[in-house]
Amino acid sequence: MSQASNFVKKLASNDKPTRDAALESLKKFLISKSSKTFSISLLDAEKLWKGLYYSMWFCDRPKAQERLAENLGKLYSENINSNEVFLRFVEAFNLIMIKEWSSIDQWRIDKYYLLIRRVLRHNFKYLKSHQWDETLVNDWVDVMRRTILSGDAKAPVALPYHLCDIYLDELQLILFEELEEEELDKEDPGYLQKYENLMRQKIEIADGVPVLKLIGPFQILNKEAKLKPLREKCKEDILDDERLVDWAVIEDKSDSDSDEEDDGVAEKDDDDEEEEEWKGF
């Protein structure tokens, strides 16, 4: 794609009007090329995301950063309608985050955390708009598993840590975005009935979504990650999250099962006592 280099230069400009105009041009370009016959190489997708990365780099004010993060996330859900382009863009974003993470200073780190959150949100929007197609979900999970959630030493540990923090929050937001949730008052005589109706609706919605497949990379990290704190975080923040029980994705564990599992974890921990552990960011 010959346009890639031109887009990158303008997207990475330190002049805001130039960056804004380039982003609008990129949106139109992606929309015009969103047919099934259009393809994009991973290298060109990475070039585009390198330019978008610097668009965020030069964006200074909190409100502007929030708008830009949302607009960059929307590239996935509003400007791409080709599964191949979508998956390439997902992989390109992940690879750029991995490559550039060590260069992000403490004053810019929060806006990239926000960008990752919004990109993930609109990834889920795209999957939902395609009715959680099995092949598409499998391919998307595979991309995540090979990049940010690989457990590879090349992927900064802050990235899977951050995904553990936000993953189910963003999935929940997209799963139930059409569900009107009124604020429930426990003092209301009809509270229990309203709560049960709400949970029943959530279970019906979640039943049509491959949630277990979507959390698969965290199950693998929980077993295979070299860093014990990362294994534990995957378990605590994803696999043991009560929402998975509420949505009937997993069964509620009995006390006896929990005791047996605790024994197994303790035994594994004993084996890992001598493992060198990560001490923090």
TrEMBL record:
Where mainly found?
nucleus
Q: Which domain of life is it from?
A: Eukaryota
Q: Name one GO cellular component term.
A: preribosome, large subunit precursor
Keywords assigned by UniProt, alphabetized? Nucleus, rRNA processing
Q: Where is this region: Disordered?
A: 250-281
One of the protein's GO biological processes: rRNA processing
Give the Acidic residues compositional bias ranges: 257-281
Check the record and name the Pfam families matching this protein. Answer: Nop52
Compartments where found: Nucleus
Record bears the keyword Cytoplasm: no
The family this protein is said to belong to: Belongs to the RRP1 family.
- Protein name, UniProt field: Ribosomal RNA-processing protein 1
**Organism placement in taxonomy:** Eukaryota, Fungi, Dikarya, Ascomycota, Saccharomycotina
